Amino acid sequence: MVDTALNKKIVHTLLYYDLFDYPLTGVELWQYVISKERYGLAEVLEAARNNKEIVEEHGFFCLKKREAIINQRKIEYLFALKQRRKMQKWLPCFKVFPCMKGLFLSGPIALDVSRENSDIDIFSVTAVHRLWTARFFVVMVLKIFRQRPGFIPVLGKKKGSNRGKFCFSMWCTEADMDLQRYALSDNDIHFALWLKHLSPIWTNGDNVYKKFVQTNTWVRQYGEWLCAERKGFSRSIIARCCELVLSIIPDGVFERIEWHLLPRLTRQKALGSGTDVVVSHECAKLHITDRREEYNRAWRGRIQAYERTESVV
C-alpha cells in the first residue's frame, strides 16, 4: 500500500537538497527525511523506489532528470576529503587555543562535499563568558599564517583566495547553545538543517555535542537528529595555563577590541534588528551574506510547483 504522505515528504526532502545539487544515499534519505513522524529505513527506501519522480543510481537517490548531480557529488567528495585532511593537520593547534569547548564543521563540508576554491566553515563553542577571548587568539593565529578567507567581494576583498582557508563564521558559548532565537520567524528550515548537519571534529570531553543537540530540540520538527556518543578529549596543559593567565582579563576587553576590528558593514548589520549578523556576549554570527531566506523561499516555491503538477496529473 502506497503511503501518499511519506511519498510527498520524500520528494519535498529531495527538492530541498536538490537546491545544492546534493543527491542522497538511501541511509541519508532516511535520516534526513523532513517529517515530524518517524519512519523505518526499509519503509523510506521502498517508497522512494516506487516513486516514478525519483531515480536511484549508484546507491544515490535524486529527482528525475537530475542524475548528473550524482557524479558531481563524487567529485566534490574528493575536494572535501582534502579539506578534512587539512583540518586534521591543524587540529592539534586548535586544541591549544584557550577557552575552546568544541569545533564543528558546518556548511557543505559537513556533508562531505566541497568545491576546489571553497573555504572550510567552522562552528565553535567556547567556555561561558569567554567567546571573544577564544576568538581573539584563533583569528590572530590564522591571520599570521594567512589562513583566513581573502575573497569576500561584499566587503571589498577581491584579490585574495578562499581555497582551503578557515572560516570561523559562527560562535556560541555553553550558556547560549539554544539557537532558535536566531532562526527566521517564518519556518527557517535551512537554519535548522544547517545545525542538524554540523559535524563534530573535536570536543573537550564535557559532552558538548550531546548538550547542543538536547538544547536545540526545536530542530527535530524537521526530522530525526541522531546524536551518537562521541569521544571527547581533555584540554591540553598549554590551554589550561593560558586560561589561568587570561582569567584576570575580562572577556569584554577582547570584545571591545574585536568590535572595532570587524568590517564596517558587519558592525552595521549587527546593530540592526535582523539575525543575519549577531554580535553579543555569548553569540557571534558573522557570515555577512545570509541566504537563508532565499533558500527557504526557493524550497517552498519548488514544493508549490511540484504540487501543482501533481494536481494536474
Mean pLDDT score:
92
Shape: globular
- How many helices? The count is 11
Q: Structural class of the helix and strand makeup? A: alpha+beta
- Beta content comes to 5-15%
Physical arrangement of strands within the biggest beta sheet: 7-4-5-6-9-8
Number of folding domains?
A: 2
Describe the secondary structure blueprint for this structure:
Blueprint: H1 4-18, E1 24-25, H2 26-32, H3 41-49, E2 54-57, E3 60-63, H4 68-96, E4 100-105, E5 120-126, H5 131-144, E6 166-173, H6 189-196, E7 199-203, H7 208-215, H8 237-246, H9 251-261, H10 264-270, E8 278-279, E9 283-285, H11 292-312
Helix pairs in contact: 5-9
General description of the model:
- It is a single chain.
- The chain has 313 residues and is an alpha+beta fold.
- The protein folds into 2 domains: 63 residues; 216 residues, no CATH class.
- Helix content is 44%, strand content 13%.
- The chain contains 11 helices and 9 strands.
- The strands form 2 sheets. Strands 7-4-5-6-9-8 form a 6-stranded mixed beta sheet. It has a 3-stranded antiparallel beta sheet with strand order 1-3-2.
- The protein is globular.
- The mean pLDDT is 92.
Task: Write a short abstract of this structure.
The chain is built from eleven helices and nine strands.
